[in-house]
Design a protein that fits this description.
Blueprint lengths: L8 E3 L2 E4 L12 E2 L18 E7 L5 E4 L4 E3 L7 E6 L8 H11 L4 H6 L2 H9 L1 H4 L1 H11 L13 H12 L1
Antiparallel strand pairs: 1-2, 2-5, 3-4, 4-7, 5-6
Helix pairs in contact: 1-5
């Protein structure tokens, strides 16, 4: 039970107080983006499939420590850290998958590349299901409905962002 008579919400060691003139949305914390390793596309501080991101409370948020000390954030200080899951990225390229599907889809090369050897072999033996399977797979891969079998789903926009970062 909270015996503290002051208004606010207790969050662990911190007590959050928001004045009446601050809108609720302005009190939401903003996270600093972690540094991303270009080779793995994971945060550099990723350990045991978890990375920590620094969160900055909005300006004019007052917190009261468990010892009664009051702290008012200016928006530049780190208020707390939040854990985010690391992604399992193996290096499949969306562009390569689409190119394989377009040019060698009738041989099942796209499915072999994405980690579906049974479907790749079936497409190879049936010449891409007489062309219909190749067309369907090309549409599914280009619309990013079908991705790598290991669960990695890097979208085209993420791949373009990574290329833009390496150029600058």
């Amino acid at each position: 039970m909270n015996n503290d008579s002051r208004p606010g919400k207790r969050l662990g060691l911190w007590k959050l107080e928001v004045s009446a003139e601050i809108w609720l949305l302005s009190a939401l914390p903003v996270g600093r983006n972690p540094k991303i390793d270009d080779a793995t596309q994971e945060p550099e501080n990723c350990k045991d499939l978890v990375a920590w991101v620094e969160c900055l409370p909005a300006p004019n948020i007052s917190c009261i420590l468990s010892n009664g000390t009051r702290f008012k954030f200016s928006g530049e200080e780190v208020g707390f850290n939040k854990s985010i899951p690391c992604r399992n990225v193996t290096g499949y390229s969306y562009k390569v998958a689409v190119a394989l599907s377009l040019f060698l889809g009738w041989l099942g090369a796209d499915r072999f590349y994405l980690g579906y050897p049974a479907l790749g072999l079936l497409k190879f033996c049936t010449v891409g299901f007489c062309g219909i399977g190749s067309l369907v797979d090309f549409i599914l891969i280009s619309m990013q409905i079908v991705g790598p079998s290991d669960g990695e789903h890097r979208s085209l926009s993420e791949e373009v962002d990574r290329e833009d970062r390496t150029k600058t």
